[in-house]
Backbone:
């Protein structure tokens, strides 16, 4: 297809789609209205189970099955990355050379690393209480480790990041989510039913029944997954070379 | 029994998790056996639930059973079609895992479990999509099966074309998924619901359809039709199928693409079929036009391929067109026919891919011209390939033929001609390949034009070129063909399928799906046509060879992802235009 023809097709399709969107926008409910059928029900259900953070109640209780799917998508993507970015026959692994890091950067990274790591873990642990949760906290915790790459060098990062352990952690936490769900089936209620544990006291760490458990599983899964993802991409960029020495 | 529905998703996902957790220590045999065992167990569960699915099972995950008619949870619907699709997906996953037993050249170092784990995740995604009764949940599982499929397609990452094919597949399908997500958002804005039946009810209480309903319909259907590879959303499919490892092709062509058609059927029936949805005439117009277009383009592209995997991929596009025409008619009998057709097609198409994989691993080529006469020693494979071609053309008593006959009877008139022609051309193309490759008939074809994709110079997927074909690789296509035959000949099977499809779709309309004299005759006509086409192509190659007017059509398959994106946008607009008249007048 010539560039001209491609642009014509694109313009026609884009114009049609834009017209459709504009027309649809006039049918949308007005901004700032007070009718939120699902929101009202979700808040009600969340308070009934003493989960202070309604978003977590939606994620890990009311629609925990969606979260199972989303977690599996992340798990699949990580697995796919591991498979696709493997060291192929025509590639070899080189040792990355240490690089000089500016002193302020090094100091900053080393000071912030523990703070960022603890913040990530805090966000995971308080998922049922305050905004955040396993997905967000997991990303913060995982990226915190990579401050070491900025502050020191790749070999230092590799030392605190044994990929094998993280891969097993990724798979085990995904399995833990499923096993928690299956416990509901074994108990005779339903898959992922939040009826096994007491709901606890509202707005305390041990409230919400199985919400903190599923939240923790997701936190661990996401943290491990991000570490592996970044490791695979960094390996390609830093370590793996084509056989003729090109990166 | 309801509580067991989520296990169809949970079992394969847990299997994949365990495979990865222990995969670093497991030897390859153990990992592959475990994968087979898990997918077989899930298949058994799906079949057992399917046999007990009347009346349909429903399960609210997390025990969020509705109070006063509303719920915040997710509902799973275990009716005949949903569980039947899960069973089909599980059985095909098992078949391709068995076929790929010890198959790949090089599992990633210390990751022997990753290939079977990806297959299990793929299976879990398909099962979830099949049984969910919640639109957002359907989107999540749609994405899960896509993510697994992208990774599996690009598995042989050493080759540049594998990366290109998987990238085109990933970009176009993700684009479709975003369209679907926007459609879901529009429906949610209107109704505040996510369960399919509740959205439908919400639309109906709001009043007649308007621009928002149309936009939601078009966007959701775009996502599903991209997956179904309907023209002009189809460009990713030949590129992806040509490069994906053969066992993955069996799954992609056999069942994943068909999930798009299933989704269209499910979503229209539950969400848009009420007075507040899209009028029936509009859906009929949209799906019939797109279906005929898909059938015609698929059949033409199929006939002019010499890369055997691409040829089979294009024939899948052609048959999807026929499925869409059947589903678009909204007749209960046509639904029954399409269901049978889909079951029969899955077995035959997977078997044909399996046979092509044998050629690839034995000769390092899937080029029809280069392989001329070289397949002579593979007598068993030749018989299977010919049977597959005949079944694809609609020869009784295969399941495809029964399904086609039932649908043709329901549709009647000119659409029957489309059915007969498309199946004759696709079947004829497969028979032509069989005649040349396995029997060396006709003159050795000359080298084709430069813009053709030849299938020569492909790397075998096994460790070495096979000198002897392993029994598993021979047994799997044979069993798949036998399964497809069983769909047509097992007494009472068609009746059960028809009953469960109608129970779920058309409110329990009483129909009968069985062989009729007219159906058998039409099947024989299309088979005879296919044989004639194949014979003519082999004996007089120049008569049915490439024509200049087909060149622009074939050039559209450019491999340029930008082109494919432009076509997706144009397709969305086309879909909107086709469904517009009823909204304007209604």
Residues:
């Amino acid at each position: 297809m010539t560039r001209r023809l491609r642009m014509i097709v694109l313009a026609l399709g884009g114009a049609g789609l834009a017209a459709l969107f504009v027309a649809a926008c006039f049918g949308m409910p007005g901004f700032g209205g007070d009718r939120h059928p699902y929101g009202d029900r979700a808040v009600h259900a969340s308070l009934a189970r003493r989960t202070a953070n309604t978003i977590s109640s939606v994620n890990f209780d009311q629609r925990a099955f969606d979260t199972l799917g989303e977690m599996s998508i992340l798990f699949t993507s990580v697995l796919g990355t591991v498979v696709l970015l493997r060291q192929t026959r025509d590639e070899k692994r080189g040792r990355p050379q240490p690089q000089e890091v500016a002193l302020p950067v090094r100091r900053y990274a080393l000071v912030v690393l523990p703070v960022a790591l603890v913040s990530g873990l805090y966000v995971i642990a308080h998922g049922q209480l305050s905004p955040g949760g396993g997905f967000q906290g997991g990303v913060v915790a995982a990226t915190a480790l990579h401050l070491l790459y900025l502050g020191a060098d790749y070999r230092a990062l590799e030392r605190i990041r044994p990929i094998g352990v993280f891969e097993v952690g990724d798979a085990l936490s995904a399995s833990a989510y499923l096993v928690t769900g299956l416990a509901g089936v074994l108990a005779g209620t339903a898959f992922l039913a939040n009826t096994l544990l007491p709901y606890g006291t509202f707005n305390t760490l041990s409230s919400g029944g199985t919400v903190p458990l599923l939240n923790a599983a997701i936190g661990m899964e996401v943290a491990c997954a991000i570490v592996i993802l970044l490791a695979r991409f960094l390996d390609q960029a830093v370590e793996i070379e084509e056989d003729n020495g090109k990166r | 029994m309801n509580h067991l529905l989520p296990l169809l998703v949970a079992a394969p996902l847990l299997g994949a998790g365990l495979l990865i957790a222990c995969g670093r220590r497991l030897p390859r045999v153990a990992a592959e056996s475990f994968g087979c065992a898990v997918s077989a167990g899930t298949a058994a569960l799906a079949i057992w639930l399917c046999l007990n699915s009347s009346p349909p099972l429903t399960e609210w995950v997390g025990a969020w059973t509705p109070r006063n008619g509303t719920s915040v949870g997710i509902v799973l619907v275990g009716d005949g079609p949903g569980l039947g699709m899960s069973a089909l997906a599980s059985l095909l996953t098992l078949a391709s895992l068995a076929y790929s037993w010890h198959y790949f050249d090089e599992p990633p170092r210390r990751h022997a479990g990753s290939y079977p784990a990806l297959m299990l995740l793929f299976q879990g995604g398909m099962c979830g999509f099949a049984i969910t009764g919640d639109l957002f949940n359907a989107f999540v599982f749609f994405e899960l099966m896509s993510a697994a499929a992208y990774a599996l397609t690009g598995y042989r990452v050493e080759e540049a074309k594998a990366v290109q094919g998987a990238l085109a597949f990933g970009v176009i399908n993700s684009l479709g998924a975003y369209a679907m997500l926007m459609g879901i958002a529009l429906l949610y804005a209107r109704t505040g619901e996510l369960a399919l039946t509740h959205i439908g009810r919400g639309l109906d209480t709001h009043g007649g359809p308007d621009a928002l309903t149309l936009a939601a319909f078009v966007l959701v259907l775009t996502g599903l039709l991209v997956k179904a590879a309907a023209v002009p959303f189809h460009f990713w499919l030949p590129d992806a199928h040509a490069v994906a490892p053969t066992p993955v092709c069996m799954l992609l062509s056999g069942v994943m693409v068909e999930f798009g058609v299933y989704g269209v059927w499910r979503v229209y029936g539950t969400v848009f079929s009420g007075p507040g949805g899209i009028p029936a005439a509009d859906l009929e117009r949209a799906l019939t036009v797109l279906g005929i277009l898909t059938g015609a383009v698929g059949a033409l592209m199929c006939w002019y391929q010499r890369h055997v995997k691409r040829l089979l991929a294009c024939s899948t596009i052609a048959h999807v067109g026929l499925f869409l025409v059947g589903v678009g008619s909204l007749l209960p009998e046509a639904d029954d026919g399409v269901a049978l057709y889909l079951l029969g097609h899955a077995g035959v198409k997977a078997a044909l891919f399996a046979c092509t994989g044998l050629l690839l691993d034995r000769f390092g080529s899937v080029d029809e011209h280069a392989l001329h006469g070289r397949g002579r020693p593979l007598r068993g494979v030749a018989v299977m390939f010919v049977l597959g071609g005949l079944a694809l053309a609609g020869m009784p008593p295969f399941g495809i033929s029964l399904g086609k006959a039932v649908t043709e009877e329901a549709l009647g008139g000119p659409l029957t001609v489309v059915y007969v022609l498309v199946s004759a051309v696709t079947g004829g193309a497969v028979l032509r390949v069989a005649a040349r490759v396995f029997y060396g008939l006709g003159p050795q074809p000359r080298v084709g034009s430069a813009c053709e994709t030849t299938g020569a110079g492909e790397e075998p997927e096994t460790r070495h070129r096979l000198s002897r074909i392993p029994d598993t690789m021979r047994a799997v296509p044979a069993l798949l063909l036998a399964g497809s035959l069983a769909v047509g000949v097992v007494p009472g099977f068609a009746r059960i399928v028809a009953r469960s499809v109608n129970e779920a779709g058309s409110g329990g309309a009483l129909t009968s799906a069985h062989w009729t004299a007219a159906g058998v005759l039409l099947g024989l006509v299309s088979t005879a046509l296919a044989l004639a086409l194949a014979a003519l192509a082999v004996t007089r190659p120049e008569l049915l060879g490439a024509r200049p007017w087909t060149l622009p059509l074939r050039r559209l398959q450019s491999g340029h992802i930008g082109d494919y994106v432009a076509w997706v946008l144009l397709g969305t607009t086309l879909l909107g235009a086709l469904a517009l008249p009823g909204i304007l007048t209604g």
